[in-house]
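BUG: 3D viewer hangs when loading the predicted structure for this chain

Environment: internal workstation, default settings.
Expected: structure renders.
Actual: progress bar stalls at 90%.

Input used:
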Amino acid sequence: MTGKHEYLLAQDAFSKRYIPECLQFLRSAESHGYPSDECASCRWNCWMLLGRFEDAWLESDAIAARNGPDPNCLWDGRPFRGNRVIIRCLHGFGDAIQFLRYTGLVRRAAQAVFVQTHPQLRTLARALPHVDGVTSWEDGPGRHGSDWDQQIEVMELPRAFRTTLVTIPTEIPYISPPGPYIERSRYALGPRSKRRIGLLWEGSNWNSARNVPAPELLPILATPGVEFYSFQRGTGREQLGLLCRQTDIRDLSGDSPDVAYLAADLMQMDLLISVDTMAAHLAGALGRPVWMLLPYEADWRWMLRRRDTPWYPSMTLFRQKTPGDWRHPVHEIARDLGNTAFRD
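Structure tokens produced before the viewer hung:
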């Protein structure tokens, strides 16, 4: 059996979440000459799914020691003490929101901390208490090497602090929209008469397995005594009409690119029900209750078979039992919404 064949078997086992089998195939594939970095990368995901972060960091160390090129790895491995550090958010919005929680830890050692992020996140990033400056790609500190002594990509921060399950920073909320945004949202929504539930059924197009067809949410929308609000943007917004034919649901998605408006609206919700999207991360960072629908092949950060997550104490996970079948998690949510503990 060739190393490539064994690696393909490892990938198949990983997709089925047979993690012990995957690790065995990876060891064999590497021993038969399959590229070490590819095997280590897959093992990294296995360890993270198992909650064995320490083992994942050892894989990262091994990859770094082999000097393999990675445009998203910017950290030089040195301590931050006394340096001007720029944290660059080169991945998605949700990744930036999840890992900007580390700014306080960086600032304890660094002389100054700057954040370079997406223009849509600048307002929220500027409200972070431990940040000395915020820039986007073409403005402010960070454009020139003279502005900083050390750089790190935001998703490298857990490794930089050798994070374990028990040392994840959980000072929540760590993100807050500015007061005027909150007042605007409170005024626009008006007086509260019922429990408010926000909905999001579709994320970005890069992983369609995360998305729930809107009509499959109808058992949730049958819950009495609550008001539903759609935060859905993009192509998924076109499905809102299908839901509106069955129940009252208010479109709160808006058109502003500034994510601080979304944060302010989420502050007015009693619960967000969402697929794996930036909004779910944002609700968790705000400390708002969020119930997240996860596909069978959920991302490493949600680990395996857990209903909770150490990343966001206010988040509950509802998982597919079989790939592509949303009926079980949807009915779980509909059942839990019927509990008086939520309505009262």
